[in-house]
Amino acid sequence: MNNVAKKLAIKLYDKIAVIYGAGVLTDVARRWKTQLNENSKSMAFFETLPELNHNAVVGYRYPADIHRNVLVLLLRCQSLHPRTLLRYQITGELLDQNKIEHEFVDNNSGNILSDMMSMVLLGDWVSYYLAILNGIDPTPVPEINFLKNRLVETK
Prior knowledge:
The protein has 155 residues and is α/β, with parallel strands linked by helices. It has five helices and four strands; from the N terminus they run H-E-H-E-E-H-E-H-H. It has helices at residues 4-12, 26-40, 82-97, 112-133, 142-153, and strands at residues 16-22, 44-49, 70-76, 102-106.
């Protein structure tokens, strides 16, 4: 199968997604998280480099069985600063040391805007395919409607 979005959705099935992004991919990582939450109805979080290297990496140890439940996706493109790319590599080594499943998701068009937009689109497709795997319609958001209705009730 050559469909990267489908492959990632299959890997994310029944996992908590943690999306890492840096520089121009920071907001893309946030977008992936929100699309996975809303469309796939699945739990997802995002972190940014270099900030995650100051605290999140320390949390890789516990809970001890976290590796069974999490997939870290490291969104990366060659237009990022070389030191930032080095941080990605070293963060991957730390994930390996802690036996946390992870995957680098690369886009290397050579154009910053193209890298950003391609990654946004890829994340949208991943969330759609994961919704299908979860057996749900990605469009309704009953939890958000519940929240809005409760807020209106308690004015």
